[in-house]
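Each letter names a residue; structure tokens follow underneath. Both lines appear below:
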Amino acid sequence: MLTAINTCGYDAELATSDPLRLTIRGEVGRSLEASERAKAATESLCSFYHDHQQKDETRTLAQFVSLALYLTPPPALASKVKEADLPPDATAVLGMVPLLAKFYNEAGIHAIWERHSAAYAGYTNRYREAVSKMILDTEFYLKFPSGNYLGRTFAIYVEAMGAPSATNARNYADDYYVVLTPGTNPGLKMDQIRHAFLHYLLDPLVGKLAGSLGRLEPVMDAVKLAPMDESFKADPSLLVTECVIRAVEARTMAGGKAAQTEQDHAIEESMQQGFVLTQYFYDRLAAFEKDSIGFKNAFPAMLAAIDPRKEQRRAAQIQFASTADPELLHLSRPNQGKLLINAEERLSAGDAATAEKLAKEALAENSEDPGRALFILAQIALNRNIDGAKDYFQKALQSTSEPKVVAWSHVYLGRILDLEDERDAALLHYKAAEGASEALPEAKAAAEQGLQKPYEPPEHPQQDDEKK
């Protein structure tokens, strides 16, 4: 998959990539020059790639990584799950699969892989000892053996064809994956691997207690303006898990030997990004370290001892940062998409109340694309709360890379700003919509119309173009 997108123009961070990336790109190029059939297969593949590029190269890479992790090995390259169970970013590029299979065969990718398989084994071996030590150290600190998790997977892929700064981590049901890229910097990305491994250990533990987290509502109210991803604001189990992980990371910095000032700084940064229970769990871990009880047994008491009002007051004293670190781990859950599909159907049928209920349920469960849910809520708000609609559209843009949501959110924001006589700001959104809508002719036409003249609402409102 990554060799394919490199062939089609994915050039992110070539200058700092491992030399093997350029070597493989050169070999693929020579293979294409020697075969007209390979060239034809590549042209179709690259046309699809260019139609699905994102403005952000990190998101471009992420969607193809998501899809690749769901595919069986070549030459079959079949989806491991039903289309309805794919994550939204993988679904958006699912049409790549038959084109990829043809490219693999015609361009002779298997032979190129065989020539370099020993180099890939060398990448893996560089991590083997460090990962083994990380797992042992983490299990020892938490007094929590991961061997208890039978039937679950934690896998690491080291892939030379990506951007060296990129790390993609995924959770699909019981399986956790980390995809790393080597570069000219010889350092290992152990912090990212450990963060994902802590999720692997702690996600199920917090999940079992999710039913008791409703009492944290005052804390959830306190983080509404925080810069972290919207999913943390909608799901207390996600917020709690991330706060616990960041607390563990702070207490074990430099093997537990980091200066107190460094630990304090890490906690302060975490709190300012919106992870407002980090300080609480950091303090509780100090007592945990002195006890013989394992984290699995200690955690329920830690959770029960949270005073929501006290933590709400503490959060109220925080000056939130303007931005937050992007979350490393992308979560995917079974049967995703159904709530939002139903919500979209109900909205098209004129049943806004049910559509709103389903969209909010999807946000609360964090089981589907939050950007799509926010987009639905924005459309509903258009008829009764224009400021609320504007806020939802802006949050939708921050929460997803799904082309339809991005393009139409920009169109709607442009129209709202036109109605507010903010023409210059409206033009920026129409231009953004035009750039994001190459595969969406209705959205592209709406964006071009907005660029030509300010929006005027129709005298007889009809169903929006994108619902046809």
In short: DSSP finds 22 helices and four strands in the chain. The first strand starts at residue 153 and ends at 158.
